[in-house]
Amino acid sequence: GQTLHLPTNGALNIVLVLVASCLLFLLACRKKKFKNLPPGPTPLPFIGNMHQVDVKELIKSLRELSGTYGPMYTFHLGSRPCVVLSGYKVLKEALIDKAEEFSGRGDFPAVQMWSNGNGIVYGTGERWRSLRRFAISTLKNFGMGKRSLEERIKEEAQFLMAEFRKTQGKPFDPTFFLSCAGSNIICTLVFGDRFEYTDKKFLTLLDLINSNWKLMSSTWGQLLFTFPKIMRHVPGPHRLIYKNYLKLAEFVRERIEMNRETLDSNHMRDFIDCFLIKLQQEKNNPDSHFSEETMSKTTVNLFFAGTETVSSTLRYGLRILLRHPEVEEKLHEEIDRVIGPNRSPCMEDRSRMPYTDAVLHEIQRYADIVPMGVPHTVTRDIEFRGYTLPKVPFDPTQFKNPNSFDPTHFLDENGRFRKNDALMAFSAGKRVCLGESLAIMELFIFLTSILQSFNLKPLMDPKDIDITPESSGLGNIPRPYQFCLLPR
Ligand code: HEM
């Protein structure tokens, strides 16, 4: 098809400042600088295309626009032009076929003030590349994706079951139980230890993470994303995002100091120890990307990304199962048949549990907890397409029943598990989620452990349970709920 000339983010940012004042200039600039951007809805001065979308449901509106403008179009987020890519084909073409070029991280105003381009999630360039490489190899050394970590997850699942049993079949909100369980796995890797489910400080941190994830996905968060320069000065809950990050960083700083005092290079306990050693090794290298600053940001990144994602997937998943008792029933049947009541579920079981596997994939597709991905940019002027990446696991060309929860999306006629590359819950390419293998283990072991031990009991008629998200922005936030767990 048509080739497009996309300038790098640097060029885009220059234009950004100028277009804020006047549309004609925008058009002039677009003509000159962005003359080959894909077509899209006509923007207004300053607000861009925001009058054409529902801020509360940005992702839904963006999807609808792709019905009119196709899988790739230009959308003005306030005064910033963004190219929206949606659908499996174009995403694959960008993230996989042009992986290097599309590995840049887009502007993310909500976190910019805190991250300052340091760390992994919001970093770019050589700094991002070295920190990412270092994190992956260090986490692998501590067992990520291996048997040793699987044992840790199984152990944590037993702690979780013990906490659940304490609810004695009474209604409760599972949010913090699930956050504790998920977080404890990344904590083991990063801080060398797990925390008790009653540890006040730990619960405060989980609350900070949970609140920030919600804030970044709220209308306030969207407004900050769209009008960063103004919203930074407007009072409102969105300003807590920065403050909460500072509090998380303060906790991480304390942990780093604890590690520093007891550091022993012959016995590395965790990610922080390894980073401290790396700092020592690189202290005479003026170009090093390893500094106190990047250590703090990278650690917060891992702690945050490793906590909220897994726990909100499980929280959303349980709600979906409350809505679909017939699916829960089949899961119990498969768990009882393959694992039985007397031993813990393990990863080896998965290949013999196609139904469970399909349900987990369908939960990830339907819950779609990072609905727009995290914004990307191109790393150099490139003859191609776009900027922001709303990944679209609702692509109707890839799933027969895209708007319903339907595990058969991942099953063939004979009930065998069927992979579908169009599900990109962890994104793809050079920026692919670095915790993917860890997350998959956690989701499988936690969910099967829960259903091995308990029946889920909703507090209302399943048909009345609304499984659409409460809000949707960076994340899809499931509606808050209570339910009961009855021992089997
Ligand atoms: C169900 C669980 C999870 C989901 C759905 C998920 C999803 C994602 C997505 C969509 C991205 C953005 C990729 C992109 O920019 O294209 C991402 C990035 C990332 N994830 Fe995850 N994630 C999960 C669990 C985890 C865990 C357990 C960790 C902890 C190790 C983790 C660490 C990260 C990091 C560090 C990045 C940034 C990568 C980069 O920018 O280079 N994630 N994740």
From TrEMBL:
One GO CC term on file: endoplasmic reticulum membrane
Regions that span the bilayer: 12-29, 433-454
GO molecular function (one): iron ion binding
Compartments in which it is found: Endoplasmic reticulum membrane; Microsome membrane
Domain of life: Eukaryota
One annotated GO biological process: epoxygenase P450 pathway
InterPro entries: Cyt_P450 (IPR001128), Cyt_P450_CS (IPR017972), Cyt_P450_CYP2_fam (IPR020469), Cyt_P450_E_grp-I (IPR002401), Cyt_P450_sf (IPR036396), Cytochrome_P450_fam2 (IPR050182)
UniProt-listed Gene3D superfamilies: Cytochrome P450
Cofactor: heme
Binding of heme, residues: C433
Keywords: Endoplasmic reticulum, Heme, Iron, Membrane, Metal-binding, Microsome, Monooxygenase, Oxidoreductase, Transmembrane, Transmembrane helix
Similarity-based family: Belongs to the cytochrome P450 family.
Official protein name in the record: Cytochrome P450 family 2 subfamily AH member 13
Biological classification of the source: Eukaryota, Metazoa, Chordata, Craniata, Vertebrata
